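I'm stuck. Protein, please.
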Amino acid sequence: MKLLKTKKIAGDIVVITGLHIGGSSDTIEIGGMDNPIIKHPVTSDPYIPGSSLKGKMRSLIEWETGKVIASDGKPCSCGKCEVCRVYGSSNKDSQQGPTRIIVRDSFILETIKKDFLDNNTPILEEKNENTINRITAVANPRPIERVVPGVKFRLDILFKIIDTGDGGVADEKYLNEVVLKSLALLELDYLGGGGSRGNGKIKFENLQVDGLKVELPKVD
């Protein structure tokens, strides 16, 4: 087993509808937001954790390929399939080697941040959502914090091509059939919380693999 190369997948994550990836609300002030988004501890800028992006990508491709464990809905852990090969497996008997994918945290593009600041446009918004009592029809408003549409984050993914006796052929294949397909599925779904209420629609722009432009595969 030998590492042949590490491919770099880069691009922009464009927020289409308000994005809410929850942060800590342990220190709420009076009148403060009780559903804040996650922010960088130094800059206070919103960002997309690599764990959130990777987890959603894996979940979608597992559903697409029928790998979800029906009894409990947990991630596939067979250690043999293409999803486990790419995203990793806790199966100690797996012979496929290390996790192929590394998903970095995604940060706001500095050019976009400057554009918003120059135009005095806030990057964050407060959206009020209501839950309705089915008996009394009384609405219970609940404010949530969101990243506004138009904000762009930098996508930063690494993918290892490992020779497991096939010259790395399988990993080259799974780069397109698993990783890029996961991104295509994500464009049709949502990222973060509240997707069924309109949050979290995104799209990918300027996608490249090792500096060469690529298109996402078509999905039904």
About this structure: The mean pLDDT is 90. Strands lie at 2-15, 47-48, 101-103, 106-107, 124-132, 139-147, 152-163, 202-209, 212-213. Residues 2-24+35-58+99-213 form one domain.
